[in-house]
C-alpha cells in the first residue's frame, strides 16, 4: 500500500463524491480531507526515533511547548511539540541553544496539513557547538579584561549627536527614534543601516562602527536589533566586532535583544540595554523630568534664599531694637570725652619726652665740643703732618728740607723744615 492508497479518516466516512488518492484524476480528483487522512495514516505507521539537535525556538503556549530543533552540523530543522503530559518528564531548564536528544514520533495534523514531531522524551547532551565556542570565547575575553566595569566609559548626559547602527526600516530603528524624540524633541541622529543577520552582518556593522567612531560630532553609539534566536544573533558575538567595540573611543550601547538573549556585545559594551526602547530611554534624558527637576531646584533655592533673608532681617531688627542703637549719642559723648583726655595726656607725655631729649642732646653736643680737636686748634695750636700723612710728634722725623703741612683752626699751610731742633727749657 502506498501513501496515496485510499484511507478513511477515523470517525468520518469518506465523502461520497471523493475518490481514493491513487484513483484520482483531473476529472475525478480526491478531496483535501481524504488526501490528508491518507498521509496521516501513512505517517502514523512510523516508529519513534531518537534525534539529536540544537533548540533554536522554544515557545510555551499554555501547558504545551512548540519548538524547533536544528541539526548541529547543517541548517536542517524540524518542528517539535511537547504536550503538557510529557513536560513533567523532561528537564525544566530547557532553553534556546541547548544541545539535546529527543524521542520523537511523526505526526500529521489533518485539519491544517501541518507536519511535526511529538516529543515523548528529551534530555540534555550539552551546549550546541556554536554556543560552546561562544562560551569559550566569552571566558577568554573576560580573562583579558574586556568586560571589566573599570574600562567602561560613561555616557554623556545630553549627547550632541547619537550614532545608530541598525537594520533599514526595522522596528528597532523606529523604536529608538520614536522614544528618543518623545523624551528630547531636539535629539539628532546619524543612522547607519546595516544587515543585522547573515554573512554581511559583521563586516557592515564593523564598517559603520568605524565611521561613527571617527565622527567628532557623535557622542554615543547605539547598536540595535529587535531580538532573535541565538542562531541569528551570532554575528553580535563575533570576536572582531567585540574587540572593535572595546577599542572604540566613543561610548557604545548594546540594544540587541530581549532579556533572554545575551550576545558577547552585551558584555563588552559600555552599557547594555534590554531593548531598543530601553536604549533610547537610557541615552536621552527626559525633557519633562529635567524641567520638573529644574523647577524643583529653583523652588529649593528660592526657599533657602527667602529663609536666609528673613533670618537676616530678623537679626537686623533685633540689633536695631537694642538701647545702644536706638540712642547712641550718650555713648558717643562719653567716648569723645575719653578720647579728648587720652589725646591731652598723650600730648603732655610727648612734650616732656621731647624736652628731655633736647636737654640730653645739648649735653652730648657740649661734651663733643670739649673733646673735639677743633677746640684745641681754636686756642692756637696746630697739627703738623708729613707728606705721607703721618702726624709729626718728633722733630727728628722732620729733617732739613722735609715738606710739611700745618693745619690750624682755619685752614692749612705748606712749610719746609730747616732741620733745627729746639730743646725745651
Automatic annotation (TrEMBL):
CDD domains for this protein: ExoVII_LU_OBF
Domain Exonuclease VII large subunit C-terminal, chain residue ranges per copy = 146-364
Predominant localisation class: cytoplasm
The leader peptide range reads: none
Q: Which InterPro entries does this one have?
A: Exonuc_VII_L, Exonuc_VII_lsu_C, OB-fold_nuc-bd_dom
Q: Which GO terms describe its biological process?
A: DNA catabolic process
What residues does the OB-fold nucleic acid binding domain cover? Answer: 31-122
Instruction: Cite a single GO MF annotation.
Output: nucleic acid binding
- GO CC field: cytoplasm; exodeoxyribonuclease VII complex
EC number(s) recorded for this UniProt protein: 3.1.11.6
Q: Which UniProt keywords apply?
A: Cytoplasm, Exonuclease, Hydrolase, Nuclease
Where can this protein be found? Cytoplasm
Pfam families hit by this protein: Exonuc_VII_L, tRNA_anti_2
Name the reaction it catalyses. Exonucleolytic cleavage in either 5'- to 3'- or 3'- to 5'-direction to yield nucleoside 5'-phosphates
Q: Report the enzyme's class at the first EC level.
A: hydrolase
What segments bear the compositional bias annotation Low complexity? Answer: 1-10
Instruction: Identify the stretch(es) annotated as Disordered.
Output: 1-29
- State whether it acts alone or in a complex, and with which partners, per the record: Heterooligomer composed of large and small subunits.
Give the similarity note.
Belongs to the XseA family.
**What's the name of the protein?**
Exodeoxyribonuclease 7 large subunit
- The source organism is Microbacterium esteraromaticum
Amino acid at each position: 500500500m502506498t501513501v496515496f492508497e485510499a484511507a478513511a479518516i477515523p470517525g468520518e466516512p469518506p465523502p461520497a463524491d471523493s475518490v481514493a488518492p491513487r484513483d484520482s484524476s483531473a476529472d475525478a480528483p480526491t478531496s483535501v480531507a481524504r488526501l490528508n487522512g491518507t498521509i496521516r495514516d501513512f505517517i502514523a505507521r512510523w516508529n519513534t526515533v531518537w534525534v539529536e539537535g540544537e533548540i533554536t525556538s522554544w515557545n510555551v503556549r499554555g501547558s504545551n511547548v512548540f519548538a524547533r530543533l536544528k541539526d548541529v552540523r547543517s541548517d536542517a530543522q524540524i518542528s517539535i511539540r511537547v504536550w503538557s503530559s510529557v513536560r513533567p518528564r523532561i528537564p525544566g531548564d530547557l532553553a534556546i541553544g541547548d544541545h539535546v536528544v529527543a524521542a520523537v514520533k511523526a505526526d500529521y495534523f489533518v485539519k491544517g496539513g501541518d507536519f511535526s514531531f511529538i516529543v515523548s522524551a528529551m534530555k540534555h547532551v550539552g551546549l550546541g557547538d556554536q554556543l560552546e565556542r561562544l562560551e569559550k570565547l566569552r571566558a577568554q575575553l573576560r580573562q583579558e579584561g574586556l568586560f571589566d566595569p573599570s574600562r567602561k566609559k560613561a555616557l554623556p548626559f545630553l549627547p550632541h549627536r547619537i550614532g545608530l547602527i541598525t537594520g533599514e526600516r526595522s522596528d528597532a530603528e523606529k523604536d529608538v527614534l520614536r522614544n528618543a524624540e518623545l523624551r528630547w524633541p531636539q535629539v539628532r541622529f546619524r543612522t547607519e543601516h546595516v544587515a543585522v543577520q547573515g554573512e554581511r552582518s559583521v563586516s557592515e556593522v564593523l564598517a559603520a562602527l568605524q565611521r561613527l567612531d571617527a565622527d567628532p560630532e557623535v557622542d554615543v553609539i547605539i547598536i540595535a536589533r529587535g531580538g532573535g534566536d541565538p542562531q541569528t544573533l551570532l554575528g553580535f558575538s563575533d570576536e572582531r566586532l567585540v574587540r572593535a567595540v572595546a577599542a572604540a573611543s566613543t561610548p557604545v550601547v548594546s540594544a540587541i535583544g530581549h532579556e533572554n538573549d545575551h550576545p558577547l556585545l552585551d558584555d563588552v559594551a559600555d552599557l547594555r540595554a534590554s531593548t531598543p526602547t530601553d536604549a533610547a530611554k537610557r541615552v536621552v534624558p527626559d525633557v519633562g523630568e529635567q524641567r520638573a527637576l529644574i523647577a524643583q531646584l529653583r523652588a529649593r533655592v528660592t526657599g533657602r534664599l527667602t529663609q536666609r533673608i528673613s533670618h537676616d532681617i530678623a537679626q537686623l531688627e533685633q540689633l536695631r531694637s537694642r538701647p545702644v542703637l536706638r540712642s547712641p549719642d550718650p555713648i558717643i559723648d562719653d567716648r569723645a570725652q575719653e578720647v579728648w583726655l587720652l589725646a591731652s595726656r598723650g600730648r603732655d607725655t610727648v612734650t616732656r619726652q621731647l624736652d628731655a631729649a633736647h636737654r640730653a642732646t645739648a649735653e652730648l653736643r657740649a661734651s663733643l665740643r670739649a673733646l673735639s680737636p677743633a677746640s684745641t686748634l681754636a686756642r692756637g695750636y696746630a697739627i703738623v703732618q708729613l707728606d705721607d700723612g703721618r702726624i709729626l710728634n718728633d722733630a727728628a722725623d722732620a729733617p732739613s728740607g722735609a715738606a710739611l703741612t700745618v693745619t690750624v683752626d682755619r685752614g692749612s699751610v705748606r712749610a719746609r723744615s730747616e732741620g733745627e731742633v729746639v730743646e725745651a727749657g
